[in-house]
Amino acid sequence: MATPKLKYTTPGLTEEKATRVVELLQDRLNATTDLHLTLKHVHWNVVGPHFIAVHEMIDPQVDAVRGFADDLAERIATLGGSPIGTPGALVEARNWDEYSIGRDTTQAHLGALDLVYQGVIESYRNGIQELDDLDLVTQDMFIAQTEQLELFHWFVRAHLEDKSGALSTAGAGSEAEAARQAG
User: Which residues form the Ferritin/DPS domain (predicted)?
Assistant: First the structure.
């Protein structure tokens, strides 16, 4: 979906720069909307001996990531854009596959989430770099959200590493492969 022409933007930011910032924000809005729904899906579908620990670990992540989506949408509006939050638009715009794990063990889901978080964090870091020349206010938002996402990723990875620090998901190229390796 194309970014509509802005009617205005915030003082000190050119329309051209604001348009690109809105595109970056919309991409992260799509990612965080997808992530908080994926995390809730995991919350509902984990089973096994560590069920309650993972079930309860995931909910605060859902709430935080849902808050990130709201902040991103409000920043889009602040810059004169119109945030797009419909499911169809998200599916049309995303460049990642649907989360592929259904009812499964906590380890399988955490293995898959390891790859999910890797992708989300990498795209945030790419945005941070690009925002360095566009808008430091939005860059600051991306940095703060990345810090929290990296913390959540560590929570997930702590369940996947052995005492030497080796991850059970090392080298996995897909969620399904990471789930198998972790399980």
Answer: 23-162
Pairwise CA distance, residues 96 & 35, whole Å? 11
Domain residue ranges in the chain: 17-182
Q: Which residues pair with 46 in a beta bridge?
A: 104
Strand ranges (DSSP E) for 7-131? 46-47, 104-105
Using CA atoms, how far apart are residues 161 and 150, in angstroms rounded to an integer? 16
What does each of the 183 residues of the chain score in pLDDT, given as a tens digit? 566 688 889 999 999 999 999 999 999 999 999 999 999 999 999 999 999 999 999 999 999 999 999 999 999 999 999 999 999 989 999 988 899 999 999 999 999 999 999 999 999 999 999 999 999 999 999 999 999 999 999 999 999 999 999 999 999 999 999 999 998
Residues recorded for the chain: 183
CATH number of this structure's domain 17-182? 1.20.1260.10
Integer Cα distance of 183 and 164 in angstroms: 18
